[in-house]
């Protein structure tokens, strides 16, 4: 796997500069059932296509940001700093 | 050294002699020679012994495309002699022949091999009896192969570097087309990298970085690794120009591997570039005008031409020109056999499509020049996503589709090979001896036939069975012949047979280059030099170099109990969490509460994941209303900072995180006399009522602004002192000096582990794993489920609070003095593993063996007995749930 990512702070860098945080998941807002909790903790959509995901500029500014990437081609469509809380997703 | 008279365009500098050795013997060369040209000029004909049959192999392509001239240079195997420039004093050695190139005992595999050397023979034979495989393997490894690695470790290791290079345009191949493309791209203002593996340096071009004597190894998701000497350039370019050329193909006939059989390009290069006569009398066999041109050039260089066999049925203009020079050109003929012992002594020519008999003619010669047409070198292009199709007229696979931002120029895009025709498969039964399809792996035409007969009837299967195309040439010489043979044996068209998948590496590459230089970053605290001076036993602890002890861990532990000890804890993670929402932020991250912590007070916290598992632990001191100082475990420092900043990025709270781990040093001063020692160096009131357990104070220590945390990881009165790293040695020295007459000792990681185990203070990652919850780890008190607000792990912990864990973390003692291995198994009555020991030590102050272990919940109560199985020994331990030392914390709080 090898591609370029644009850190919203630092600019274009090799993907090896970054840590991958996985697809953005939805953290339950109220007490989930055990099944919902298990799905949130352990299940991922694993989409073949464009997904929103977390990245961390580990060897750079150490900021978390969001990328939209096509998982089939590794084409990165956009990167942006998170503008608002979308109800949890980190972790 | 025999040389031709001056040749126009020769590369050698006759005024400058270069000396090197081959198998210990001195060789004379000229500057500009390659190892191959110099050795050939010196009379060497056998350059290597083949992979399996140990047959003689000589120069074939003289262009770095075939495996025949692979030698070792200065101990490194796998060097292509024909493109390796000579250097003064270089040590060249042959490969894969014992005792020597001229007498190779493993020749027996060819002479008596018969049924024993067919493909698959050793897969089928050497599997039984299985236990003999190590012996078989040793013998087979010795018999086969392409070289021996340098024996000594020091010789095998050399420093290699990675380099990242981003460019607008990468041009692969420094021939006419490649140089032209690089110049054009640079002229348009692009940042260009040009890669060329040839022996001749390319003239500098403005705006172009030339990587000479360098090989593009493959194409990986837009990165092209380029091996140049000790450096692996990882080139990422927006546009790729492939000028990889075309590769002259050999012909498959009996004895086609005999030294003296040479590709037309190789023979011409030897004569024209290095002024070395490839032979005295040659037979030429060709499928296009290239071979006829070569015949004319060799004639010009003084080589006699015995005859020329032109596969084509039409006599071309060039054939007529040759005939006018008195050369016999046999139209519709090809070469059927090369004869000879050590080198070519004769060649048998015959008409195509006629089997055996009176029409064959034998010519005496010492050189058989062959040209089987040109195949575009498309491997790297295919890796980049290009497609090829079979061109029936030319008889090779040509480029069909290119991916975006990829261009092909020069011969790879379309060979200038006038009159080229498709080459038919070799005539069955013509000539005597083996016909090699693959020179790297010694695969004969018969072997491919056999693989089809055994059911491996696709090119990909046959490749895996016979290993054709899998050798150092990577299919350059053998892919097309193998496809032709497959087509013949299966009755398919070449289009139907198709090609094997092109894979990296395109050239043989040392593993060390791919591995790069091993980096082991070492972190050292600012006090490290002192630890060395004090005789510290320095070991790795994660990325850190830390003193495990200063010679006597037990005495160091006792010193902490009896007087005072000083340990460097600079490795702790240190985070400053600041802002109006800081308290709420920590409340959301920890299962307990921090917003109600009073300034100047400290609270222990365990970080849990949303799955309710323990992630890390540490202490948090509230410095003022908006500021918290968070410490983490040494190994978890980076991960916790990432974890905090991740949630902060999501929650967008008014909080600022600052990682102070590297900027601050910290020492822990602990023991009954710690208070006195600290009191001598600070103005802050250290009396028990003024500076209580779990108080945090900002004060100067030995003049240095510090944050002093009164905590008790080791179980005695303790002050963890944090300060700017630059003052590390100063603060350490001041404390040691102040404690000198009070019995202070430095203590290392090992005594600290004894001390903390006595208190059952867990080490996250040692006593816990990714399954451990705070409830199982006997810390239910750190989970505040009455917190109304949400926090990470709340829902999972609510669930675990109601569920009895299968195992719990408890302490244990052992009576007999045996210290079980950490990781030893807890067994039930039936001998099944039901838990494990996580920590165990001999405690000098308690004079017994103590430990911690995960045991089944029903056994997790004081006084119950558990069985520990430790590498064959079983022992009975007694469970203890409260700390072994100072269970009520009276010492700690005093």
Write a structural description.
The complex is a heterodimer of chains A (91) and B (894). In chain A, 10% of the residues lie in helices and 36% in strands. Chain A has 91 residues and is mainly beta. In chain A, strands 3-4-5-6 form a 4-stranded antiparallel sheet, with no helix packed on it. Chain A has a two-stranded antiparallel ribbon with strand order 1-2. In chain A, a hairpin with a 7-residue loop joins strand 4 (50-56) and strand 5. Chain A is globular. The two termini of chain A are 23 Å apart. The model of chain A has no long low-confidence stretch (mean pLDDT 90). In chain B, helix 7 (264-274) packs parallel to helix 8 (289-300), helix 17 packs across helix 22 (749-758) and helix 20 (674-681) crosses helix 21. Helices cover 22% and strands 29% of the residues of chain B. Chain B folds into 6 domains: 1-156, Roll (Ubiquitin-like (UB roll)); 159-243 and 375-416, FAD/NAD(P)-binding domain, CATH 3.50.50; 248-373, FAD/NAD(P)-binding domain, CATH 3.50.50.60; 434-512, BFD-like [2Fe-2S]-binding domain (Arc Repressor Mutant, subunit A), CATH 1.10.10; 573-660, Alpha-Beta Plaits, CATH 3.30.70.1400; 804-893, Elongation Factor Tu (Ef-tu), domain 3, CATH 2.40.30.110. By secondary structure, chain B is an alpha+beta fold. Chain B is elongated and about 115 Å long. The A-B interface holds A 1-4, 14, 19, 21, 27-28, 31-32, 34, 37, 40-42, 54, 56, 58, 62-65, 74, 81-82, 84-86, 88-91 and B 164, 220-223, 236, 609-611, 641-643, 645-647, 649-652, 659, 792, 795-796, 798-799.
Radius of gyration of chain A: 14 Å
Largest interface: A-B, 33 and 25 residues
Low-confidence stretches of chain B: none
CATH superfamily of the largest domain in chain B: 2Fe-2S iron-sulphur cluster binding domain, sarcosine oxidase, alpha subunit, N-terminal domain
Number of helices of chain A: 1
Q: What is the straight-line distance between the termini of chain A?
A: 23 Å
**Oligomeric grouping of the chains:** heterodimer
Low-pLDDT stretches of chain A are none
Structural class of chain A: mainly beta
CATH architecture of the largest domain in chain B: Roll
Distance between the termini of chain B: 93 Å
> Based on DSSP secondary structure assignment, what is the total number of beta strands of chain A?
6
Q: Which CATH C-level class of chain A is it?
A: Alpha Beta
Helicity of chain A, as a percent range: under 10%
CATH level-3 fold name of chain A: Folate-binding fold
């Amino acid at each position: 796997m090898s591609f370029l990512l644009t850190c919203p702070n630092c600019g274009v860098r090799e993907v090896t500069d970054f840590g991958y945080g996985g697809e953005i998941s939805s953290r339950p807002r109220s007490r989930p059932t055990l099944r919902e909790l298990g799905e949130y903790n352990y299940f991922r959509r694993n989409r073949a296509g464009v997904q929103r995901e977390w990245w961390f500029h580990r060897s750079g500014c150490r900021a978390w940001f969001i990328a939209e990437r096509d998982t089939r081609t590794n084409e990165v469509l956009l990167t942006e700093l998170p503008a608002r809380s979308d109800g949890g997703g980190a972790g | 050294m025999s040389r031709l008279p001056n040749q126009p365009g020769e590369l050698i500098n006759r005024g400058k002699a270069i000396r090197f050795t081959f198998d210990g013997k001195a060789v004379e060369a000229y500057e500009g020679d390659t190892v191959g040209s110099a050795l050939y000029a010196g009379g060497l004909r056998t350059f290597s012994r083949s992979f399996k049959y140990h047959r003689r192999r000589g120069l074939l392509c003289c262009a770095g495309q075939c495996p025949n001239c692979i030698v070792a240079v200065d101990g490194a195997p796998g060097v292509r002699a024909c493109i390796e420039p000579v250097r003064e004093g270089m040590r060249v050695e042959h490969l894969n022949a014992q005792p020597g190139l001229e007498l190779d005992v493993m020749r027996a595999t060819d002479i008596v091999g018969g049924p024993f050397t067919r493909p698959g023979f050793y897969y089928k034979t050497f599997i039984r009896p299985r236990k003999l495989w190590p012996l078989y393997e040793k013998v087979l490894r010795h018999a086969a192969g392409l070289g021996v690695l340098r024996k000594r470790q020091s010789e095998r290791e050399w420093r290699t570097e990675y380099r990242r290079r981003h460019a607008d345009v990468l041009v692969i191949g420094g021939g006419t087309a490649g140089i032209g493309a690089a110049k054009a791209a640079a002229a348009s203002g692009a940042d260009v990298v040009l890669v060329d593996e040839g022996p001749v340096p390319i003239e500098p071009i403005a705006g172009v970085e030339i990587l000479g004597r360098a090989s593009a190894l493959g194409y990986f998701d837009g990165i092209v690794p380029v091996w140049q000497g000790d450096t692996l350039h990882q080139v990422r370019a927006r546009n790729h120009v492939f000028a990889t050329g075309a590769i002259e193909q050999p012909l498959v006939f009996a004895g086609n591997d005999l030294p003296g059989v040479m590709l037309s390009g190789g023979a011409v290069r030897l004569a024209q570039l290095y002024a070395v006569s490839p032979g005295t009398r040659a037979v030429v066999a060709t499928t296009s005008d290239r071979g006829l041109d070569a015949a004319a050039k060799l004639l010009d260089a003084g080589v006699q031409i015995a005859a020329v066999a032109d596969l084509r049925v039409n006599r071309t203009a060039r054939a007529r020109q040759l005939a006018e020079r008195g050369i016999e050109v046999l139209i519709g003929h090809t070469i059927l056999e090369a004869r000879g012992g050590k080198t070519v002594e004769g060649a048998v020519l015959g008409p195509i499509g006629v089997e055996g008999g009176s029409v064959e003619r034998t010519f005496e010669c010492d050189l058989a020049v062959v040209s089987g047409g040109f195949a575009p070198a498309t491997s790297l292009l295919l890796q980049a996503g290009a497609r090829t199709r079979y061109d029936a007229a030319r008889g090779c696979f040509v480029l069909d589709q290119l991916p975006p931002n990829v261009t092909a120029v020069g011969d790879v895009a379309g060979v200038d090979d006038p009159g080229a025709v498709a080459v038919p498969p070799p005539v069955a039964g013509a000539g005597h001896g083996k016909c090699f399809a693959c020179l790297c792996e010694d695969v004969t035409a018969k072997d491919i036939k056999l693989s089809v007969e055994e059911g491996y009837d696709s090119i990909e299967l046959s490749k895996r069975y016979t290993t054709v195309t899998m050798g150092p040439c990577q299919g350059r010489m053998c892919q097309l012949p193998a496809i032709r043979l497959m087509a013949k044996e299966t009755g398919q068209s070449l289009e139907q047979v198709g090609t094997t998948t092109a894979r990296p590496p395109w050239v043989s590459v040392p593993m060390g280059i791919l591995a790069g230089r091993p980096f082991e970053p070492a972190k050292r605290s600012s006090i490290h030099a002192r630890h060395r001076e004090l005789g510290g036993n320095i070991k790795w602890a994660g990325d850190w170099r830390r003193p495990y002890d200063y010679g006597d861990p037990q005495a160091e532990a006792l010193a902490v109990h009896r007087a005072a000890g000083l340990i460097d804890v600079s490795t702790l993670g240190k985070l400053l969490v600041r802002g109006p929402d800081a308290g709420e932020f920590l409340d959301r991250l920890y299962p307990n509460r921090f917003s109600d912590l009073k300034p100047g007070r400290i609270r222990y916290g365990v970080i849990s994941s949303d799955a309710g598992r323990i992630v890390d632990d540490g202490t948090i001191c509230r410095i003022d209303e908006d500021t918290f100082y968070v410490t983490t475990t040494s190994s978890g420092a980076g991960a916790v900072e990432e974890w905090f900043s991740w949630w902060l990025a999501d929650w967008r709270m008014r909080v600022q995180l600052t990682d102070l781990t590297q900027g601050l040093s910290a020492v822990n001063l602990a023991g009954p006399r710690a208070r006195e020692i600290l009191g001598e160096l600070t103005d802050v009131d250290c009396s028990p009522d003024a500076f209580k357990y779990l108080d945090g104070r900002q004060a100067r220590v030995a003049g240095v602004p510090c944050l002093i945390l009164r905590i008790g990881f080791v179980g005695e009165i303790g002050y963890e002192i944090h300060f700017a790293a630059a003052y590390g040695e100063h603060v350490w020295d001041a404390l040691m000096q102040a404690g000198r007459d009070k019995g202070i000792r430095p203590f290392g990681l090992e005594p600290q582990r004894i001390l903390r185990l006595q208190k059952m203070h867990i080490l996250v990652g040692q006593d816990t794993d990714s399954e451990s919850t705070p409830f199982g780890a006997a810390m239910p008190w750190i989970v505040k489920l009455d917190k109304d607000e949400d926090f990470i792990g709340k829902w999972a912990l609510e669930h675990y609070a109601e569920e009895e864990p299968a195992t719990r973390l408890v302490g244990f003692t052992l009576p007999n003095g045996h210290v079980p291995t950490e990781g030893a198994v807890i067994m039930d009555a039936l001998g099944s593993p039901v838990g494990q020991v996580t920590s165990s030590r001999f405690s000098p102050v308690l004079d017994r063996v103590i430990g911690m272990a995960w045991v089944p919940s029903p056994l997790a109560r004081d006084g119950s007995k558990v069985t520990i199985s430790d590498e064959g020994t079983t022992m009975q331990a007694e469970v203890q749930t409260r700390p072994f030392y100072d269970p009520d914390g009276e010492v700690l709080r005093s």
